[in-house]
Amino acid sequence: MRTSFWSLLLIAMAVVPAAAAQDPPARGRQGQGGQGQGGFLGRPSPPQPQQRQGVDYLAGTWKFTWLGRESAITSGPRSGTLTFTKASDPNVLDMRIEGTSEGGGPYKESGTATWNEANKTLTMKEHLAAGVDVSSVGDWSSPIGIHVEFDPITVKGQTLRLRRNYQILSPTSFSVTEELSTNGGPFVRLGTGDFRK
Questions:
Q1: Whether 91 and 123 share a structural domain
Q2: pLDDT tens-digit series, residues 32-55
Q3: Domain check: are 30 and 114 in the same one?
Q4: Which of 25, 36, 68, 150 could form a disulfide with 30 if both were Cys (CB 3.0 to 4.6 A apart)?
Q5: In terms of domains, do 22 and 92 share one?
Q6: How open is the CA angle 174-129-177, to the nearest 5 degrees?
Q7: Contact 83, 68 (CB under 8 A)
Q8: Among 107, 150, 155, which residue's Cα sits nearest to residue 126?
Q9: In whole angstroms, what is the distance from residue 51 CA to residue 104 CA?
Q10: 28 and 75 share a domain?
């Protein structure tokens, strides 16, 4: 018995809605139950870096490149090394920067960083190449970043306030974004630095 084109079409129209009414395949539900949520094309997202906060992470020598603009207290594009050395107090690091800026040639900076495990804070005192001393406290309660606020300083009649955000990327890499407020105005980005061991 031959089946006409119209009979086949009617059968197909009856089958398609019935198939659509069934549960969708598991891969279509990945965004709902946790698995695959936030991933790309249904793949789970990679875990965020979970570096232990403190002096052990920072200790050592980091090579860096910095892209940004010049300010009253910082030079423009520059590169060099940042070395954290453990002091006699196990919670304190001595800081030393040696580098070269595009506009000003070789420069040096120094300071200390003190870690408070209970409060998860990093207090820094720095002597910048511009001859200015700055103090700051960084909130390192998150293992993936440090938010640092500096005390206001006065330079050439202007009140300046610096802040930095560190992104902890891996055991051997972090980045820094630096912003500056002048005379109580909005914070404006100075630049970003890439640090690697």
A1: yes
A2: 444 444 556 677 766 655 789 999
A3: no
A4: 36
A5: no
A6: 30
A7: no
A8: 150
A9: 35
A10: no
Residues forming a β-bridge with 188: 180
Q: Cα(145)–Cα(176) distance, rounded to whole angstroms? A: 10
d(CA 158, CA 187): 14
In a domain, 29, yes or no: yes
Whether residues 88 and 148 share a domain: the answer is: yes
Would you state the structure tokens that stand for residue 77, as one six-digit string?
A: 């594009």
The total number of structural domains that make up the chain: 2
Cβ atoms 174, 51 nearer than 8 A:
no
Residue 16 β-bridge partners: none
Domain CATH code at residue 171: 2.40.128.20
Q: Examine the domain organization and report whether 3 and 73 are in the same domain.
A: no
Instruction: Give per-residue pLDDT as tens, 72-111.
Output: 998 899 999 999 999 999 999 999 999 999 988 999 999 9
pTM of the prediction?
Answer: 0.74
> How many angstroms separate the Cα of 19 from the Cα of each of 6, 14, 29, 56?
21, 9, 17, 59
Q: Which domain holds residue 37?
A: 1-45
DSSP structure class, residue 49: P
DSSP string covering 109-144, please? EEEEEEEETTTTEEEEEEE-TTS-EEEEEEEEEETT
Domain annotation covers residue 50: no
Rounded Cα gap, residues 106 and 108, in angstroms:
7
